[in-house]
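Let us work through a complete example step by step.
Step 1: write down the sequence.
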Amino acid sequence: MVAAIAYFTMGSDLGQTGIPVEFVRSNPKVSGMGTNQNREIFYVRYIDWTITTPLLLLDLLLTAGLPWPTVLYTILLDEIMIITGLIGALVQSSYKWGYFVFGMTAFLWVAFTVTITARQYAGTLGTDISKTYTICGVWTIFLWFLYPIAWGLCEGGNVISPDSEAVFYGILDILAKPVFGALLLWGHRGIDPARLGLHIRDYHEHSSDVSDRNLTHHAEKSNGGATTTNGGTVADATV
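Step 2: predict the structure and record it as tokens.
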């Protein structure tokens, strides 16, 4: 819904402002508009990302069973990444690249957490969970590495036109949001949320049923031996 509203706004040529370009190009499609050679900066896109990317990260990191403090500081870094990208896009001078560096630093920290730290946690939860997390995690970070390239070619370097920018970001958003969501849902189809430390009650279940199921799960984890899961046999780990 949030992304749909953002794209409706951009398709209506709203949610944008003109910023004088730092690099004036000879191509009339990217030389800028008006006498001040302004480029359209769609700030509504960043509002969309500020809301949706933390939700994507939350879904992904909960799949790995990460501790909540790690999840929260990773989401904070993601917000820093988006906000510095927006500030950099709105800055007219070369200082924009300083904000780009700040954003990339935050992104690399997020990438490290997703690809290294969280993958280690997921590996202790079973082969099925590890496989689902690895597929979705690699998919996400690969696509997210393409966003700074798009930023450098669009808001940063003024190399490609706003129309091409919309296509570039649009394709990335489709792959990073609905396609990611489909992969994650498919991977979760046989995974009990209790194995991830999540205690979710269906509408037809009583609280006592959920408590009994969670007690059984914790008892299996604390018996000191290996636990057999749908994805194979895994060693117990305390998260």
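Step 3: interpret the result. Residues 63 and 133 are 6 Å apart (CA to CA).
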